[in-house]
């Protein structure tokens, strides 16, 4: 079932729902940790599980002569496979992330064909991060430099058009295409207006819905939704919430995700003697955010859980 259909159904019924986001297993791990994270959430009926995608990393191995040998490795492969395993085990929609970074158009086309064969018809199209150690995004020689181009490729496959146009009268895919939106502006956008223009480009290219980057400030989220509507973006918008869980996130989240942390939240986290108390503060903040957004008429909330979900169980008990 398409996420847009689930969104519209939840809106019509007046019943708020939620989705969660997880990492694929590290190379060498089985699916056990993912299932351990999701099993406790089953009773709360999440509508979907997003599975992140990670580009290649660089590893240096010392040779016998003392020189370093450069290797390219993928530490978290298996996004497509674990997505299929989640759908089979839980009967919920899995949303694998597709990224431009490190992928050719043909790699992406092959991945989309695999997803179609597996019955996975919801995807999130992203440009992806810079390669570690690089300060700008390096485009694959035969790839995409922007998520908008990836969206267009997926939308054309839905129309039965492949990269080289070599297939006639072919099976058409039926992907529901999600993209990312940034309530506090993408870090590379020169200003909010340009950031909104880029988002509208993705929607005009064929995006069906938007999931926002995490934000700890509902005023920013609601203003973002209002600004999207004013810009002519009328697709469903699903706010993203990150349950705060460690003191280290006070510096890590702004550095990596370029988000602002409300002063009140920072003060409450700084008062906590241990991360156990921090997680409780994070639960309370996420529940308060969720209640306010649900009261504002938001049908689906997206939670960036990533690993352990004990805090998400408490949030689900309070909200859903």
Automatic annotation (TrEMBL):
Keyword terms, alphabetized: FAD, Flavoprotein, Oxidoreductase
Catalysed reaction equations from the record: (6S)-5-methyl-5,6,7,8-tetrahydrofolate + NAD(+) = (6R)-5,10-methylene-5,6,7,8-tetrahydrofolate + NADH + H(+)
Gene Ontology molecular function: any one: methylenetetrahydrofolate reductase [NAD(P)H] activity
Pathway in which the depicted protein is active: Amino-acid biosynthesis; L-methionine biosynthesis via de novo pathway; One-carbon metabolism; tetrahydrofolate interconversion
Annotated SUPFAM superfamilies: FAD-linked oxidoreductase
PANTHER family cross-referenced by the UniProt entry: METHYLENETETRAHYDROFOLATE REDUCTASE, METHYLENETETRAHYDROFOLATE REDUCTASE (NADPH)
Name assigned to this protein: Methylenetetrahydrofolate reductase
Source species taxonomy: Bacteria, Pseudomonadati, Bacteroidota, Bacteroidia, Bacteroidales
């Amino acid at each position: 079932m398409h996420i847009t259909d689930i969104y519209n159904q939840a809106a019509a019924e007046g019943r708020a729902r939620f989705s969660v986001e997880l990492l694929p297993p590290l190379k060498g791990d089985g699916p056990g940790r993912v299932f351990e994270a999701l099993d406790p959430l089953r009773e709360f009926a999440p509508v979907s599980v997003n599975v992140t995608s990670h580009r290649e990393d660089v590893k240096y191995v010392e040779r016998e002569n003392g020189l370093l040998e450069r290797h390219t490795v993928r530490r978290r492969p298996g996004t497509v496979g674990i997505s299929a395993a989640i759908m089979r085990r839980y009967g919920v929609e899995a949303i694998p992330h597709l990224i431009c970074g490190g992928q050719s158009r043909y790699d992406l086309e092959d991945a989309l064909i695999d997803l179609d064969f597996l019955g996975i018809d919801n995807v999130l199209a992203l440009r992806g991060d810079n390669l570690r150690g690089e300060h700008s995004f390096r485009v694959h020689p035969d790839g995409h430099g922007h998520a908008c181009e990836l969206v267009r490729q997926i939308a054309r496959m839905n129309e039965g058009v492949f990269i080289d146009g070599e297939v006639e009268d072919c099976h058409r895919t039926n992907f529901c295409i999600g993209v990312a939106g940034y309530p506090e502006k993408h870090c590379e956008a020169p200003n909010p207006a340009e950031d909104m223009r880029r988002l509208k480009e993705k929607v005009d290219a064929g995006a069906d819905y938007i999931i926002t980057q995490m934000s700890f400030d509902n005023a920013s989220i609601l203003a973002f939704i209002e600004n999207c509507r004013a810009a002519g973006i009328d697709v469903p918008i699903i706010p993203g919430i990150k349950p705060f869980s460690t003191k280290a996130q006070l510096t890590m989240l702004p550095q990596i995700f370029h988000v602002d942390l409300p002063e009140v939240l920072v003060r409450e986290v700084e008062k906590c003697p241990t991360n156990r108390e921090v997680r409780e503060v994070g639960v309370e903040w996420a529940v308060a955010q969720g209640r306010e957004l649900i009261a504002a008429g938001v049908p689906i909330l997206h939670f960036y859980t990533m690993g352990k979900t004990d805090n998400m169980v408490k949030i689900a008990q309070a909200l859903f």
